[in-house]
Amino acid sequence: MKRIALISIIILASVTAFAQNLQVRDFRIARDIEKSANGKFSTTHSSMKPYRTTPQTEISDSIVPMSDFVAYKLQNDNIYLNIQPVYELGGSYNFARKNDFRIAETAGAIIDFSLKGKLNINYMLTETYGYKKRVSLHEQLAELKPYNFDKIWDFYNDKNLARGFFMEQTFNINYTPVEFFSVEIGNGKHFYGDGRRSLLQSDICGNYPYLKVESEFLNFKYSCMWSVLGYLPNVRFIYDPDYPYMNAISHWDSRKFNATHYLDCRIGKHVNVGLFESVMSSRFLSFEYFNPVIFFRPVEFSMGSNENALMGMNIKVSFSQKNCIYGQFILDDVIVGQLMNDIKHRLSSSYTSQYGWFANKWGIQGGIKFFDMFKVKGLDCFVEGNIVRPYVYSHSQQELTYTHELKPLAHPLGANFVEALGGISYFNDIIECALEMSYAIVGCDSSFNSHFGQNVFYPSMDAYMPSQNNIPVSSYYNVLLQGIRTNVATVKFDIAYYPLKNKALSVFAEIAMRYNSNELRKDKYLGVCVGVRSRLIK
């Protein structure tokens, strides 16, 4: 096995060619990189994010250089150094709840450093202070939404005011000894896919430490990543994916380990196919998992281990540089015979044999994107649908679920849902605006004594396990959207205006509406937020 791993690394290091350096934070540069990937002769692999590029890159004339609005800049043939402030000050009001007014202020800095294009360092530190009306402990726990929050707030109560503090560090050190091979270590997050959501791995969770090796050759780009994640034992979330409640939060220092492979291949002029695999382990990964060219399932079975392994595929078909269709398929676990029983049940209502095995766990995505619609530069649109069966991403052991601390690693709704979403956006030199809408039906738990498959944090098994103290699930007759059907609708409109020529500072306004309803509860949110911010803090 060691010899195979060594040979694999040598093969990867013997082929051609990429020169990517600093991480892209500006959404305009990322958007144009993604658009350029649709070209007939493009070598860009758009499904692997975050993107990296050279400090001088300007994909189109609509993009300002990365060095705009710097506090300090040094650049010559060997060294590039850019130190830049980031900031945000905003206030929000929730019209659906009385006296719910909040203020948040964020300040920080970005440091980008490159030495001869081989050693590249990206660092971002932000500190955020938030203020809101004093609330009860019960309401504070409700603020910790694993499916719908950006930051974990540590609120503490004053006499009439709750104050919160949040600090985040994002960094990576990338070494590219040759153009086709790079090694990176850092603290951040990653996204695999071409859609608004990812069923493979997304960036909705918090940062985590990782080691990543990448190589690009011919029409292929290959990534191997090993990361350290956190989990929260003894946490239960029930029926409402937007306002879950917890009966315990403990052991924040509990750790698990994840290894991920992703291979993206450009086929012809219009098609990209990506193959994904991931394994979650409660112990430090064995040497076999550090082999960069393997399939985890055979290794898992050969070791007799009980790790949580997933496989998936991403596909994109570009019709022109203006539009593309994309899709994903995730396979957590399946038995073909049981899957055929499910198909027979769907095709015939008279089918009475066993169907709906709980471990038939899969999800599917499909979508379409348009760039520069109607020949209007900067006018983009997307439409997307996602379906994920019950119990996907969960595991018989809670510590091996496909999650990181308080959030799923893939889709924010977890599992057992059907979702449709879409959006339209426009930007030019002085203005940005975007409208996004989504509607989902989610099958949620009804109480602490039920587990219908949406809660990806909870262990799933059709028998009682004393070590997990789990709720046994039904072996058969599990169907999509089982449980308490919850309707989740969201609408969000953002607009930003850049008063300065360098486009670094924006004045923004956001209007958001969210509505959740089921037979047990209804929740509404209608909020407005206004403020100023740096363009790189989005």
What would your notes on this structure say?
By secondary structure, this protein is mainly beta. The chain has one domain: Porin (Beta Barrel), CATH 2.40.160. Helices cover 9% and strands 46% of the residues. The chain is built from five helices and 26 strands. The strands form four sheets. It has an 18-stranded antiparallel barrel. Strands 1-3 form a two-stranded antiparallel ribbon. A hairpin with a 3-residue loop joins strand 6 and strand 7. It starts with a helix and ends with a strand. The N terminus is likely disordered.
Say how many strands there are. Answer: 26
The share of residues in helices is under 10%
Give the name of the CATH architecture: Beta Barrel
Q: Mind summarizing the main beta sheet?
A: 18 strands, antiparallel, barrel
Distance between the termini: 44 Å
Individual helix count:
5
CATH superfamily (homologous) name: Porin
Oligomer, anyone?
single chain
- Give the integer mean of the pLDDT values: 80
Proportion of residues in β-strands: over 45%
Q: What does the overall shape look like?
A: globular
Indicate the radius of gyration in whole angstroms: 23 Å
CATH class: Mainly Beta
Low-confidence stretches: 1-20, 57-68, 134-160, 236-252
Give the number of domains.
Answer: 1
User: Which structural class do the helices and strands define?
Assistant: mainly beta
Per the CATH scheme, the topology name is Porin
